[in-house]
Specification:
With 466 residues, the chain is of the alpha/beta class. The protein has helices at residues 3-24, 177-182, 201-211, 226-243, 256-275, 287-300, 312-322, 351-359, 368-372, 389-392, 395-413, 415-419, 429-445, 455-464, and strands at residues 34-40, 43-47, 56-60, 66-75, 78-83, 95-98, 122-124, 133-134, 152-154, 190-195, 216-222, 245-250, 279-285, 326-327, 334-342, 362-365, 385-386. The strands form three sheets. Strands 8, 10, 11, 12, 13, 14, 15, 16 and 17 form a nine-stranded mixed beta sheet that branches. The chain has a six-stranded antiparallel β-barrel with strand order 1-2-5-4-3-6. The chain has a two-stranded antiparallel ribbon with strand order 7-9. A hairpin with a 5-residue loop joins strand 3 (56-60) and strand 4 (66-75).
């Protein structure tokens, strides 16, 4: 070992020991605990502890197991705890212990007086998560053993200054012809996939995950049915997509806190890869279930409902989650995000759908009538828009896309007249062209699930239509 290396090694340990010495003053000399006084529905009430909102704690059970919980609010001396598992077996007066942070490693000391995001819970991140399936707490679900990674990242990272973010300048190939040509996606863009139940949003997400040119894929399955989680991973995502994907699954039977944490964890994994300079595709299915989990927690601790039963905190949480995606610093990586939004009863004015539309960089609407007619993917290009497309595509591309949308829209508005023979050819030159091109346009917008339409192929087929 050279003198320079030895000096650097010694300086690193001295710095670490100095940091540890500064932490000693914040350590509790005695183990403190509180007691459970009330369990009502989803919330437990605790007295005897003074913990900050967001702090983690555990409740030992008589059978030797533990229930993990998080402080979600307080009133006076009472803390409101939200468990990460079922509360069955909790007895009156059960003891509650705060979770102490893990022993620090050299160069990774988190100072207590730093920002709250530095003191939040940290979960595993890194390349070892690729090909793995974990739950919202970072525990493996795929039966492949423990995660072999020492890297951890905060659940709630510091927000990036919007003026420091790199602008959206490059396109991202997602392998779906209708999106590549008509709703071009930019690296770092955040889009919503608005759909009712059973119109093919999971299949479309699987196509995007398999065929995208992004370096890494992070999938957050939040609040979905357990059967759907396995089907998405094994059949829709497939071995090819799964090999470069990290999947966080918090199905519908998970407690609401774990569903919230699952969405934050998937975003944290994506942020880790973005900070390494990689192009990340984040798929969140679904943003509506995330909002419903927050609604369950907010109503349980007494927050009043506002818009159609959703408390105000729900609409405050949505932009906090979504704004974590996007481009990083200049010259760094990017997170291109697709958030599915479940439109209940195909109502596009649903409060969550309406709020999501305002905070996202575009929306892709899936139409039930198209799905029932066998038109897959059932993308309604009339209602869909990509707000970044204008700045990342050529003028010729925009003209061709506008022309196709014009002809498609004109034909749809006159479909009834055409079908009953009430339209006389020659009355409207634009409609005549729309009728002549309709079959070609329909074929262009449809795509089989196992077909990969690259960006160049999509643009070539679009220009050849005219």
């Amino acid at each position: 070992m050279t003198n320079h290396t030895a000096d650097r090694h010694t300086a690193r340990w001295k710095s670490f020991l100095k940091d540890c010495d500064s932490l000693v003053g914040f350590a509790e000399p005695m183990q403190v605990s509180g007691r459970i006084t009330r369990v009502a529905g989803l919330v437990m009430e605790c007295v005897g502890l003074k913990l900050a909102v967001g702090s983690a704690c555990t409740i030992p059970m008589p059978n030797g197991t533990r229930i993990e919980a998080e402080v979600v609010g307080f009133e006076g001396e009472r803390l409101f705890l939200m468990p990460q598992s079922d509360v069955e077996g909790v007895v009156p007066g059960a003891r509650v212990f705060p979770v102490e942070s893990a022993l620090p490693k050299p160069g990774s000391v988190q100072h207590p007086r730093r920002r709250p995001s530095d003191r939040t819970r940290h979960l595993p991140v890194g390349m070892q998560l690729l090909g793995r399936v974990v739950d919202g707490a970072g525990r493996p679900l795929d039966g492949k053993g423990p995660l072999s990674t020492d890297e951890v990242g905060p659940l709630n990272a510091r927000p990036i200054n919007p003026l420091d973010r790199a602008p959206i300048t490059d396109t991202l190939d997602v392998g779906v012809r209708a999106i590549n040509a008509m709703l071009t996606v930019g690296r770092g863009q955040r889009l919503g996939l608005f759909a009712g139940t059973g119109v093919g949003k999971s299949v479309l997400l699987g196509m995007i995950a398999r065929y995208t040119t992004a370096d890494v894929i992070v999938v957050g399955l939040i609040g979905e049915r357990g059967r759907e989680v396995k089907e998405f991973i094994e059949q829709i995502l497939g071995p090819e997509g799964r090999a470069r994907s990290a999947v966080v699954a918090a199905p519908a039977d998970s407690p609401p806190l774990l569903r919230l944490q699952g969405a934050a964890y998937a975003t944290a994994i994506a942020e880790h890869f973005r900070d390494q300079g990689k192009s990340v595709l984040l798929i969140m299915d679904s943003l509506t279930r995330y909002a419903m989990a927050q609604r369950e927690i907010a109503l349980a601790i007494g927050e009043p409902p506002a818009t159609k039963g959703y408390p105000p905190s729900v609409f405050a949480k949505l932009p906090v989650l979504v704004e974590r995606a996007g481009n990083g610093l200049e010259g760094g990586g990017s997170i291109t995000a697709f958030y599915t939004v479940l439109s209940e009863g195909d109502d596009q004015q649903d409060p969550i759908a309406d709020a999501a539309r305002g905070i996202l960089d575009g929306h892709i609407v899936l139409n039930r009538h198209l799905a029932e007619a066998g038109h897959y993917p059932a993308i309604d290009i009339e209602q869909s828009i990509s707000r970044a497309m204008h700045g990342i595509t050529t003028h010729e591309h925009q003209l061709a896309a506008r022309k196709l949308k014009q002809l498609y829209s004109r034909f749809q508005r006159s479909r009834d007249l055409i079908s009953v023979g009430a339209y006389a050819a020659g009355s409207d030159p634009v409609l005549d062209q729309a009728i002549a091109k309709n079959d070609q346009i329909e074929n262009f917008l449809c795509q089989e699930i196992h077909d990969n339409a690259t960006m160049l192929e999509s643009l070539g087929q679009l220009t050849s239509l005219f």
